[in-house]
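hi! just following up on the protien thing from before. the input was this:
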Amino acid sequence: MLKKNRPDGKYIKDINPCQKLMPHIMPHRYDAQNMCKVDIVCDPIDEFIKEQYQQGKRYSYMDIMLATIVRLFAQRPSLNRFVMNRRIYQHNDITISFTVKKVLRDDSEDTTVKLHFTGTETLDEVKNKVEEVVKANTGKEVYNSVDKTAKFLTNAPHWVISMFVSILSWLDKHNWLPASLIEVSPFHNSAFITFMKSIKGDYIYHHCYEFGTTGIFIGMGKERSEPVVQCGEVKVQRIMNLGMVLDERFCDGLYFVNSMRAMKAILKNPACLLEEYKLPEEQH
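and the predicted 3d structure came back as:
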């Protein structure tokens, strides 16, 4: 029996008929992935970081990028949707997953963490959450709930793992997956971000996982000097590239394009993230 609502989202009844049809035409997330590169000019971010440092505050690109994504999802709530079993849902909150390297060595283990936001958070509030979770998961052999769940599952024979994952997938598709399991799953989120820049890597287009609810995956690459045309003149500027993979089924092209413009506008003026964002009444 299919439940309409889920622990992590609500079924959207009133939706454009064409959008409602799309999950039936493209039932799998890998069918519906669009990829785009977004070029971010680094100068406004660098100037903001420098100004804040002179005032005794330290912000990283990771802090600013995460806060920007949270603000963007608050401003553009249709981005915070997902498709499950050919139905479109709205997430209950803004949930961001990312991977943390416990120690910066090739042989070091990774762990994946997940942070919950309301959309009203300031840059400082996002930064504090990031620092807290990164500190708790790096520099030593620690195991969070995601690690413990993975270890528990992988101690079983392969056929048991396969059967168990199949059961979880069935429960998820029929909205019976318990909230406790959704919480420890890094694949159930509003967006997944990979910070390739932190390991001096270039941007990538990372697929959205079929298991879970990830509908947007952002690969943040290292800065590079590129020629940019401004007012008819070619100038060399530092550019950060974002590789974005988007599930096209829950938003149309115009909404995604306008959302990319909104994200660029935030990153041109990162100081706006210092203020709390007030959600429109209908989002409360």
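The two ends are 30 Å apart (CA to CA).
The mean pLDDT is 90.
cheers
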